[in-house]
Design brief:
Elements (H helix, E strand, L loop, with lengths): L8 H9 L4 H11 L4 H7 L5 H13 L3 E5 L7 E5 L1 H4 L2 H11 L14 H11 E3 L8 E5 L5 E7 L5 E7 L7 E4 L2 H9 L4 H6 L3 E4 L1 H5 L1 E3 L13
Parallel strand pairs: 4-7
Antiparallel strand pairs: 1-2, 3-9, 4-5, 5-6, 7-8
Helix pairs in contact: 7-8
Amino acid sequence: MKTYSQYCATARALDLVGDRWVLLIVRELLIQGPSRFTDLRAGLPGIATNLLAARLAEMAENGLLTRVDAPPPVATGLYQLTERGRQLRPVLEALTEWGLPTMSLEREGDVVHGSWLGMIAAARLRDAHPERGPLTIAIDTPEAPVHLVSRDDGAGGGGLEVRRGHPAKADARLAGEARLIGGYLSGLLSLPEARDKGLRAEGDEDALRRLTPSQPVPATPTGSSQ
């Protein structure tokens, strides 16, 4: 294992998760839950098969994930995060928050998965009226569509859970350019602003109004090229 050889908690943490792709593998396992090797490879466009296998082996050795046998009819191994691995969720959410100001620009060649946009929503939005019942918002992208489902956290607030695939029924649907969906879900764009730029938001308007930011929108850093 590569190491910074420093007696420092930050350096020790980076020894474990600082290599390229490690945190994105954690991202996929947080979103997808227990996953086949092929599921992870599909969620990580650009990674070589041998590199993914090596990273998974290293992460298992470091106690971040484990491989379990799936019951029939899957009949293959599934990778899942350990409790130690799941503790990285707030780290990923903090990185999502820190990286939001760069999302105003969609670079040519960027791959877009609905699950990544859903993760932004889960980190930044809440259902303002969970007492009205579950809320389902579909995010339609060409690759890996997902939907958001609200859940009552028991304290009067409704968090959002990301689920894969098209829902059987949705209160509202979002479609269009990724930067517009992400801009709206992050709070960088209001719904009218996103619609003016081409976002297609269809369905129950009241359902969309139930989505409210859980925290202020971060300002674009001075000097940012994004």
